[in-house]
Design goal:
Layout lengths: L1 H13 L3 H11 L7 E9 L5 H17 L2 E10 L11 H14 L3 E4 L5 H11 L2 E4 H12 L3 H15 L7 H7 L17 H31 L4 E6 L5 H9 L16 E6 L5 E6 L9 H6 L1 H8 L3 E7 L5 H14 L7 E6 L15 E3 L5 H18 L1 E8 L3 H10 E9 L4 E8 L4 H8 L1
Parallel strand pairs: 1-2, 1-3, 3-4, 5-7, 5-8, 8-9, 9-10
Antiparallel strand pairs: 6-7, 11-13, 12-13
Length: about 450
């Protein structure tokens, strides 16, 4: 790890993008990254629900492991309120310092977001690198970003987070070396002055705006083509990418890790009736998702806001899945996407008890790896849409094959009979009242 940090520091001196090359080499396995030994610390307050608190700690452990850290110890202190300067009490920090010295800990991660002064004070007290939950999540996002837009969004979030923390942070940043909390496009800029960082933030915002404009033009074309859009959303690691791959027969990155998908993917899918739609896989949500990330990823998250139907993926086997659902609903509300029709998809049914009951309706319980369940899901999607749409029935002359094709593609056709004597098709089904075909059918 020290050699890697030295390679990073020396190389960055000669070229500012060297850190990105090192990170890429790490991901490709060219450089073997040693796991950092991590101590997690949390403050439990009187009003916090015990089960929720334990769940947040387990989530912090998972986040740490996703960032290639190894959790050696978890320290919890019960307090009436967070210590204004040190987060935890001085006595508890003394205990932590002793443990660090005896067990060669590399990094301390705090379960909450720290103020700039708290981060500096704890780092000085313990004489070790200290990051908080927000910086850990930013680090994971930096690992996951692959597209130009994703990298820009992560760098923007990192710089916005670091800007108020620059004063007096040089020592803590140097303690971090090249490990957890320093990765990503912004890592070579951490020691620069405020004005340079502010200029970089302004530049990134302009670039993101350009990409967002292109994305908006693409959305506009999809709307003009009247493409029906389905968005898969859910708490991170709920199985969204697995479902996306099974539905579309594609190969997006699929792993039992948090935030495996950052850049939204869109594919075409055909439902049993012949109805065609576009389906998108999106970034996973998490409780206490940093506001800087929500702001930076707004253009990506707006894919959800443009959807005609939301598939809310839930890991039903998770002990805190109800809270996860609430987190997703809250973020959808912040994105002004809570009005969109939703189907709740409870995943991992093979791990559930027989008496499991969905919290939110309409709902279906599936295993994303089961082809039969994927067929059931398709049928359920059509069932949900039929409740939202308007019924129609019409006669189409045999010579109007194009009209039949359009109805098959843009509506849920439930009946199609050829009347030989009249040379017409009797067609029955359900159609989106916002689609131009609906108005054409009304006229006929």
């Amino acid at each position: 790890k020290r050699a890697l940090a030295l390679l990073y520091v020396v190389g960055s001196h000669f070229h500012p993008t060297f850190g990105m090359i090192v990170a890429l080499m790490e991901r490709r396995g060219i450089l073997m990254e040693q796991k950092e030994h991590v101590l997690l610390a949390a403050c439990r307050l009187p009003f916090q629900d015990d089960e929720r608190f334990q769940s947040s700690l387990e989530e912090l452990r998972s986040l740490t492991e996703t960032a290639h850290g190894e959790v050696d110890k978890i320290v919890i202190q019960n307090r009436n309120k967070v210590h204004q300067a040190l987060y935890l009490g001085q006595g508890k920090l003394e205990e932590i310092k002793t443990y660090i010295e005896e067990h060669e800990i590399d990094l301390v991660i705090i379960n909450d977001e720290l103020s700039p002064s708290q981060t500096k004070n704890i780092s000085d007290f313990l004489d070790i690198a200290v990051i908080d939950r927000t910086q850990l999540i930013l680090d994971i996002f930096a690992r996951r970003a692959n597209t130009k837009e994703g990298k820009l969004q992560v760098e923007l979030a990192q710089l916005q987070y670091l800007l108020p923390r620059l004063y007096g942070q040089g020592k803590n940043l140097s303690r971090l070396g090249g490990g957890i909390g320093t990765r990503g496009p912004g890592e070579t800029k951490l020691e620069t002055d405020r004005r340079h960082i502010q200029r970089r933030i302004d530049d990134i915002r302009k670039q993101i705006q350009q990409v967002a404009t292109q994305r908006e033009q693409y959305r506009k074309r999809r709307k003009e083509n009247k493409a029906f859009q389905i968005a898969i959303v859910g708490y991170t690691n709920a199985g969204k990418s697995t479902l996306f791959n099974r539905i579309t027969n594609s190969q997006s990155f699929e792993e039992n890790q948090l935030f495996a998908t950052l850049d939204p993917l869109t594919r075409q899918v055909q439902l049993p009736s012949g109805f065609q739609a576009l389906i998108s896989d999106t970034v996973g949500f998490i409780q206490d998702l940093p506001t800087t990330l929500i702001a930076a990823f707004r253009s990506t998250l707006e894919e959800v806001r443009e959807a005609d139907l939301v598939l809310h993926m839930v890991d039903a086997s998770h002990p805190d899945h109800v809270h996860h659902e609430k987190t997703v609903h809250k973020l959808l509300k912040e994105l002004e996407a809570d009005h969109i029709p939703m189907l709740n998809v409870y995943n991992k049914k093979d791990l559930l008890n027989e008496d499991f009951m969905p919290v939110s309706l309409p709902a279906i319980t599936i295993s994303a790896n089961d082809p039969i369940d994927i067929k059931r899901l398709f049928d359920k999607i059509e069932e949900v849409l039929m409740k939202e749409w308007e019924p129609y029935q019409t006669y189409v002359h045999a010579s109007k094959g194009d009209m039949l094709h359009r109805l098959s593609k843009h509506s849920i056709m439930t009946e199609r009979d050829f009347l030989e004597e009249d040379e017409v098709y009797f067609v029955k089904g359900w159609i989106n009242p916002d689609h131009p075909l609906y108005h054409q059918l009304r006229k006929e």
